[in-house]
């Protein structure tokens, strides 16, 4: 009886919670090992963490301006489409769906499973099959919730954001207390240049940027934000500053308690920290970390489903995925689509190989999106934007992203080559199907079968096209 469309239910608090909940996830609890391993020393690893935070702020500010200039949801995809054109946007969508997003979700899910089981098996490591089963159960729970209700997904994200900040506080407070008591032995020779390997630094940045990734999530739900021209800049600035401060203090706490070899040997750095510093909370912190990862999974599903929704609406993805459930008002088909790929990657994946595998593609396209902001400014000088950043911010961010991507070929050629092949594999699909269909509307690829399947799935899932334009 009522119009079918995605409602504006994301307030400033929910936008802040979405960003905090997406950034503070598994990264700060698993990435310290990757950053330290590839930067070589405690001092250089802290420099990498701060540099990643500053770089994230530059990216977040650039995306905040893009979010006020381009009024559609969809994040990276819609920004690349509107500024650089349909080919690079489809290549992003292709890589995001088949590599970036399922690998990212698998990394977070595996971290969730590992930390959830850690208290039950300590001091031994949890069995790998058990970790994968729990990881999948957690992912399926979040998937079900996002299919059921936008409001409850947002409420869960707000609650878990508080849990995340509490988890960081439980690491920061005892670490700072020990540091104040003079425990600085692990900071001796912090900047040991002999252990620094320059060609490994891009991998250190990938691990650090993975921990900060999530600052772009508000742009994915732009059409569902209340007062987006005000709330997007406010949410990203407050959340990124909060996370930078929290991450720096957390890493200092880690190194106050754990020596370099302890961090590198630990499969779960936060658990090793608590075992040394705060034994009374040995069973509490892993659960808080697992809940933190749970919130990151929730934010990832919430936002990426909007990318598929918008791509379908723009004609670059099957039309079923731009449909909304008639009662729940959720993009149900888009939410459910990631189910098989994430399941497969969790079953076969290893966290650190997955991290390098998807980081190449992710930062390539984020760099292109901020490059698109420069192009958009040049093409539309008359367009008034309520939020504008200095030009050097998107310029420097784009250069650093693309340079890091180029350097990573020397650091991990196998994983990066796989990511590159995944991106390039979208070329024939685009020219055989998408480009022909966009240039010639009468061209339809397997139209009879496609229409039949779409109709049957539409009836089964009870979904219809959006009835009101929201951008």
CATH homologous superfamily - what is it? Amino acid/polyamine transporter I
Number of helical regions: 19
> Strand content of the residues, in percent?
under 5%
**What is the domain tally?**
1
Q: Outline, from the CA principal axes? A: globular
The largest pleated sheet is described as:
2 strands, antiparallel
Under the CATH scheme, the architecture is Up-down Bundle
CATH fold description:
Amino acid/polyamine transporter I
- Estimate percent helicity: over 70%
Q: Strand arrangement, largest sheet?
A: 1-2
Low-confidence residue ranges: none
Distance between the termini: 23 Å
List keywords for this structure.
mainly alpha; Amino acid/polyamine transporter I; 471 residues
